[in-house]
Every structure is written in C-alpha cells, then in structure tokens.
Amino acid sequence: MPRARGALTTLLAMLAAVGHAQVDLQHSYRGRSSVRLASELVELVVLTGGGSIASITVAGDPQALNPLWDSLRGDREQGRAERASGAVGHFVCVDGFGPTSPEESAAGMQGHGEAHRLEWSTEFAGSEDGAAVLRQRVMLPRVRELLQREIRLPRDESVIYVKSKLESLLDFDRPVNWAEHATIGSPFLERGVTVVDISTARAMTRLREGASRNGLMHRLVSGAEFEWPMAPVRSGGSVDLRAAPLESHSLDHTAHRLDPDAEWAFVTALHPGKRLLLGYVFRPTEFPWLQTWEYYPREGLMARGLEFGTQAFDLPRREVVTQGRLFGTLLYRWLPARSAIEAGYAMFLTETPESFSGVDRLEWDSGVLRLHDDRSGQRIQLRAKGEI
After folding, report:
1. How far is the C-alpha of 87 from the C-alpha of 52, rounded, in Å?
2. Measured between alpha carbons, how far is 109 from 40 in angstroms, rounded to an integer?
3. In this structure, how many other beta carbons lie within 10 angstroms of the beta carbon of residue 211?
C-alpha cells in the first residue's frame, strides 16, 4: 500500500497541471514539505506540517512579494532556532486560541491549539473542474476532534476558497475556540504606508495590567471601547490604527465585533506603493470576531495579525468561557456531541490601480467580488464564482 500511495502521489504531481491550475506535491518551502497551488493569477504555498498557508504571491511577480508574516525570519532575527511547528504566515488555532491554563500546561497542552503543531495528511491534491484543489485532515488527539479542510483555487481567479469542518469524537457538547491566525509582515508591512481596513465593527482595546510586555510598550489605553480606526493612546489623544506608526516600540491588541446582521465581513491590507492588496471575506455568523495584533519593534521584522475567529482576544479557554460574551456576542462556538461544525472564508491577492487607497465597502454577488474605495471613487472587480 505505501508503494501504491507513493506512485499515486508522483502521478498526481506530474499530471496536476490542467488548464493553468497547477498543484505541486513535491514543493519545498524553506526546507519544509509543502504543497503549491497556482492559477493564472496567484500562487499559494501550504505547509504539510501544521497546515499553515505560508505564502501567497502574484503569478509572475519578479519579486515574489509575500504579504504574509515570515515568522521563520523573525526567529532568526531574535537569535532563536527556526520554529519547528507550522505557526507560519496564516495558521489555524483550533481547538484553542491563546495561552493555556496552568493545569492545561501541566497536562502537556500548548498554546493556540494542536492543529498548527501536527502533521496534516493530504487526502487529495490535483485538478477538479479547472481548479487546483487541496484536501487535508488532521486528528487532534488531546481534544478528540478531527479537522478537515479544502482549499480551492480556480485557474482564472485570484480568489482562494477555504472550507473547514471540525468534528467532535466526544459524547458531550463543548465550547470550542477557533481562529484563523492570518498575519502580515515586513517588507509588505511598512511603517506609515501599509493600511488595514475592516468592515463595520464595534471595537475595544485589550485590557492590560502594565504599560509594557517583553520590553515592548503598550501605546493604547487599556480596555477602552473606540470607533475604528481612531483608538485612544496612553499619552493622550488618539491614533489612526489603519497604518503602522512611523516610530514605535510597541505591542498592542484590539478586538472587533463584526456586524452580526451583515452577510459578509472583511479585512484587507494594502501596500499602495507596491499596489498590492491582500484580503479575507467570511461570514460573521461563523467568525464574529476580528483581532488585530500589532508587533512593532524599533528594528527588524514587524507583524500585524488580522485574526478572525470565535473570540475577541487570544486568552485561555477558561477565561473566555467564564466571560461568555462581549458586546452581547458569544466568545466561543458550541460543538455538539459526535457532530461537526463548519466555517469558510475567501482569501484574495490582487494588484490595484495607482491611486487606490483602501477598501471601504465590499459586495459579493453573481460571481463578482467588488471592492469599493470611497476615498478615490475607484472600484476593483474580481472574478469570484466559488463558494464558502
């Protein structure tokens, strides 16, 4: 059987390029086993260890600029060995989002859940209906759950469709924590240049006991509600959070309760100089919260999380469940006994017009994704015929 599976894998790797939808099962990313999916417009790299989306680039870009967080580079800059887990770029935090309790830690549970620390098995990788498709699964032994995911990239689109299913193997209902830890980083993330936009939301800064952590200052007021993008700062006044500050040595978090009545929620990141826009679209009924994590050291790699999920902040499960709600919205999802819950999102990367300044509104219907910039009066239209 292993020999037959190996032969099938080789055959798929040779034949998966059909109509410019390509799948490469033998791809290596920074020495790590990965799968590469490509359309006529974008290329995506997914690690088998941890299931992280490590890279997304525009097809044919001579710079191959990846807007996602290069945490491996960050490890080197801080004098650490490159992490062995899959916490690279955009990774999945399930079942767990944040640190563990002392008791969980003593039992061997680690932060951000198990999924990004385990090897994912590839169930299918090839071309289906003109799209590059990757189906993976990973068993989470500590929480007794099975996570299955499909990534689909149509050959003529710059939009990637991701569908996931989380299944309980236990005989009782339980609250679960699930976040898509999407993160951007340098050089795409540039001080005073790269801007982040979020759909209509109610926002709050993280509650902090001190003015700093790990040598990085908290520039934002602790536990304050605010109206995006202007957030209160400790020194007085407010700051526009769309762009990274020109000068700072800071670490901050904000939580955003997305409009529960909207069909779609979104978060985008734009580098206007490089004319490159990364975005995510998802249902607020599945992911009602967005957390922005700002890591802005004086020197070296910067990172900014665009993390959409089931809870406001990355906190231990016990704290989240005990709090229960924020702004009247649950901070977890229920996973019924011997049942499954599903969630999906669309991810896109596209070049922009020269004067495009950000995304104020988004519409998705009739197979077209429309991104409106009300500041410049421009609109980007992307072919988006898939479903999540």
Report:
1. 7
2. 42
3. 10
Cis amide linkage into residue 365, ω under 30° from 0: no
Render pLDDT for 285-321 as a digit per residue (tens, 0 to 9). 999 999 999 999 999 999 999 999 999 999 999 999 9
Q: Check if the beta carbon of residue 305 is closer than 8 Å to that of residue 182.
A: yes
- Report in angstroms the alpha-carbon separations of 228 from 157, 181, 197, 258, 353: 31, 20, 9, 12, 25
Phi-psi region for residue 268, left (φ > 0), alpha (ψ -120 to 50) or beta? beta
- Given a contact cutoff of 8 angstroms between Cβ atoms, the answer to whether 309 and 179 are in contact is yes
Which of 21-30, 225-234, 314-323, 344-353 has the weakest average pLDDT?
21-30
Residue 328 to residue 149: CA distance in whole angstroms: 30
pLDDT 10s digits, 116-157: 999 999 999 999 999 999 999 999 999 999 999 999 999 999
Structure tokens at 273: 């100089």
Give how far Cα 327 sits from Cα of 40, 221, 258, 287, Å: 43, 19, 10, 15
Burial of 273 (0-12, 13-18, 19+ CB in 10 A): exposed
What is the pLDDT at residue 1? Answer: 42
Gap between the Cα atoms of 309 and 292, Å rounded = 11
pTM of the model: 0.94
Two structure tokens written together for 74: 């960050």
Domain spans in the chain, listed from the N-terminal domain onward: 9-204+255-383
- The string of DSSP codes covering 102-171 is HHHHHTT--TT-SGGGSBPEEEEEEEETTEEEEEEEEEETTTTEEEEEEEEEETT-SEEEEEEEEEE-SS
CATH architecture of the domain formed by 9-204+255-383: Distorted Sandwich (2.70)
